[in-house]
Amino acid sequence: MTQPPGFVHLDYPRHVCRLKKARYRLKQVSRAWFHRFSSFSLSHRFTCSNIDPSMFVLCTGGHTLIVLLYVDDVIITGSSLPMLTSFMTLLCRIFAMKDLGDLHYFLSVLVWNSSEFFSFAMKIC
């Protein structure tokens, strides 16, 4: 291992930085995070999709809300803007998240909002 250019210490040219904490720490962290998120979603009347276990669907009052968890990104789409914004507010209150705004691309797929369906992206901090 070598230091990146510009970070070499003049007194210790052969030393490297030691990483004290990895972003995801242990292998089990992602499993624990998914369990926490899915428990939260299921407790708020969402159902887990049979096709994709990381997709949660809520159908209520003639409106649909779909939440897709992908690593540390959360894609939220639905037919009711007030329902979407209240759920996003709830997510930000429960989890440390950052609102990325309207969804434009997801896994190299172009996404656009229509007058009936809205999509937003959030990032887990």
Structural topology:
Layout: H1 28-43, E1 47-48, E2 55-60, E3 63-70, E4 73-78, H2 81-94, E5 97-102, E6 105-106, E7 109-110, E8 118-124
Antiparallel strand pairs: 1-2, 2-3, 3-4, 4-8, 5-8, 6-7
Folded structure, characterized:
With 125 residues, this protein is of the alpha+beta class. The chain has a domain at 47-124. Helix content is 24%, strand content 31%. The chain contains 2 helices and 8 strands. The strands form 2 sheets. Strands 1-2-3-4-8-5 form a 6-stranded antiparallel β-sheet, covered by helices on one side. Strand 3 and strand 4 (73-78) form a beta hairpin. The longest helix has 16 residues, at 28-43. The mean pLDDT is 80.
Gist?
The protein has about 120 residues and is of the alpha+beta class. Helices cover about 25% and strands about 30% of the residues.
The biggest sheet, with number of strands, parallel, antiparallel or mixed sense and barrel status, is: 6 strands, antiparallel
User: What number is the mean pLDDT?
Assistant: 80
Share of helix among residues? Answer: 10-25%
Distinct helical segment count: 2
> What's the number of extended β-strand segments?
8
Strand order of the largest sheet: 1-2-3-4-8-5
Order of helices and strands, N to C?
A: HEEEEHEEEE
The rounded Rg comes to: 20 Å
- The separation of the N and C termini measures 29 Å
The residue ranges in which pLDDT falls below 50 over 5 or more consecutive positions are none
- Note the beta-strand portion: 25-35%
Structural class: alpha+beta
